[in-house]
Each structure stands twice: as C-alpha cells, then as structure tokens.
Specification:
The chain is α/β, with parallel strands linked by helices. The chain has 13 helices and 6 strands. Helix 6 links the parallel strand 3 and strand 4. The structure holds farnesyl diphosphate.
C-alpha cells in the first residue's frame, strides 16, 4: 500500500490567463471566492464513445486518458487544489474481461510514464487511493515513480482512484483503527479488553471510534472532502465512489461521455455548482433563528401548536 500523501500548503499560481478563450469566458462568470476546493469525477462512457464510432472499447479508454490530461491541466490553471478521478474500481478489476483489465493497466503505465513532464510543467502532484498493492508490480513501479517525480509540486493534486472501492476503504479504515488499538495495548503490555475497561469500555469506545477517527483512517485522510462530484455519460449513480466523503457534496451529472469531456466542461460543472445552495443539513441565511423569530416568534408558534393539539384531542 502506498503511504498516504502528506497534506501540504497549496500555492496559488495565478495562471488563469493560460486558459483557452472558451474556458476564460466561463471562468469569468464564476465567483472566485466560491470555487470548490476538491472536485471528484466518475469518468464514465469510454466504451459508449468507442461504440458510437464503431471502434474497439480500448480506443475509448485511450481517448479517455487524453481527457484526463486536458482536464487536470485546466484544473491547475484555475488553482483547483484537489482533483480526484475514479480511474479503475475494484469492481472493474473483478468483473471486466482480463484483456480489458490488462489494457487499462498498460494504458495507466504509459500514461504515467509519458505525462510526468506535463505534470511538472503544470505544477501538478500525483497521488493515488485504493488497494494499489494488488495492482501489477510494474504498474506500481510507474505509479511510485510518477509520485516521486511530482512530489515537490505545490499546485493541483491529481489523485487517481485505482483498484478503489469505497466500502472496502471503510472496511480498511475500521481494520486500521482496531490495529492501532491492539498495537497500543501491546505497547502498554495489557490486553485490549483491559485497556478499554480501564477507561470505562463504553466511554473508551466513544472516544476512540468516532467520525473523525474513521475519516482519519480513510485513504483520503489528508484531503478535504469533495465539494463537487461530476459523473459523465448520464448515469445517476455513485458506483461505490467516496461514499463517506461525499456526504454533503453537490452532484453534477452530464450526458457528455468522458472522452468528450474537456476543460470547458469542468468549468461549466463548477458554474452549475455555484448556482446551488449548499446547506450541510442546516438552513440558509433566510432561515436563521433571528429571521424566523421575526416572522413568528418560536414560543408563540409552540403555543399555537399545543392549542391545536389540545383542541384536536377533545
Ligand atoms: C468507464 O468507461 C471508465 C473506466 C473503466 C475507467 C476510466 C478510465 C480511463 C479514463 C482511461 C485511463 C485513465 C487513466 C488515468 C490513464 P466504461 O468502459 O465503463 O464506459 P461504458 O460505460 O460506456 O462502457
């Protein structure tokens, strides 16, 4: 397993002038103070893209790799700190024909070997999430190499989700929590049961296993949760991608197939995101206690409701 990428200070580059004229026009319509920090993409539709052109599925994947590079370069020009792409799921690994899996592995290796210079020119840092230790050795070597070659870059972090499944990630997090507790008990020379009992077992469990701890043991511990999830090719599914992390993310689905997705489409998705109102389970500004109490004080409403229930029960 790769070591989790350490968090770092992101440095803005101010390279928006390098956007294409089409991208610049969309970017100019965005509110720079409300850009997402983290965009995650479910890249879908490579096979359909190829099928529509009577081409082999492989060519769809190859064209999809081109989109990856265009999109991450646009992301770096608009100073997007985190871009995470679902490149190969655990399910892809288990359920796709061996020939397709082996093609995707070769494509990934070639992609990494041939794009590191462009990554460095654009100050992009490479990272990975997933059960990457199960990938072929030579693919892991190229992943490690690309990660090392780009480690000092301070712009966008491009994270590829490889052999990734969100449920397995949560399972891995739980295992790692338990492993850490066992190691601590071992270090103190007592059993896990005695260690927890000494703190009051229920209290100990509440303190040691909570949302922060689960998050801290996910592959994504070092990154902020995604603000925006984009899915291409029109399917309205999450497909076991970052289930924990996208609890409050906005979801943008486009019919465009991934091999046709480019920088302007990333910016359009961000524009749609900015038109949404994020509430994180709360209310908007127009729904704060002060505003609602001016409309009708809470005590008065409570009295009216209790009057109604009393009347109703007669
Ligand atoms: C879905 O297309 C996409 C994938 C299986 C993974 C994404 C892979 C790439 C974009 C190519 C390589 C990526 C890198 C980073 C080099 P699909 O085959 O499910 O399409 P379909 O639903 O139309 O059949």
């Amino acid at each position: 397993m790769f070591e989790p990428t350490p968090s770092r200070v992101y440095q803005r580059s101010g390279r928006a002038h390098e956007l294409s004229s089409e991208e610049r026009a969309i970017f100019a319509s965005l509110d720079p103070s409300r850009l997402p920090q983290h965009v995650a993409v479910i890249m879908d539709g490579n096979g359909r893209w190829a099928g529509k052109r009577a081409l082999k599925r492989f060519l769809g994947h190859q064209q999809g790799a081109e989109s990856v590079q265009f999109v991450v370069e646009t992301a770096s020009r608009i100073d997007l700190p985190w871009l995470t792409l679902y490149a190969f799921s655990l399910e892809n690994n288990l359920r796709r024909p061996k020939s397709e899996v082996s093609f995707l592995m070769k494509l990934l290796k070639n992609y990494l070997m041939s794009n590191v210079k462009r990554m460095n020119d654009n100050n992009i840092r490479m990272a990975y999430i997933g059960r990457t230790a199960e990938l072929p050795e030579e693919v892991q070597d190229s992943m490690r190499w690309a990660e090392e070659q780009t480690a000092k870059n301070t712009g966008t972090t491009l994270t590829l989700a490889l052999n990734y499944g969100s449920r397995s990630e949560i399972v891995d997090s739980a295992r790692s929590l338990l492993r850490n507790m066992l190691a601590e008990a071992d270090q103190r020379g007592i059993s896990l049961q005695d260690m927890l009992a000494a703190e009051g077992t229920e209290d100990a469990l509440r303190a040691r296993i909570d949302e922060d701890q689960i998050s801290a043991n996910l592959y994504t511990a070092h990154m902020p949760d995604p603000d925006l999830v984009i899915r291409t090719s029109g399917e309205q599914r999450i497909s076991n991608f970052l289930l924990w992390q996208i609890a409050y993310a906005e979801i943008f689905v486009t019919d465009r197939l991934w091999p046709d997705f480019r920088g302007p489409h990333l910016l359009e998705a961000i524009a749609a995101y900015q038109r949404r109102e994020r509430r994180f389970g709360g209310l908007t500004d127009s729904g704060t206690d002060e505003v609602l109490d001016v409309l009708e004080p809470a005590d008065q409403v409570a009295e009216e409701i209790s009057g109604l229930t009393t009347k109703g029960s007669r």
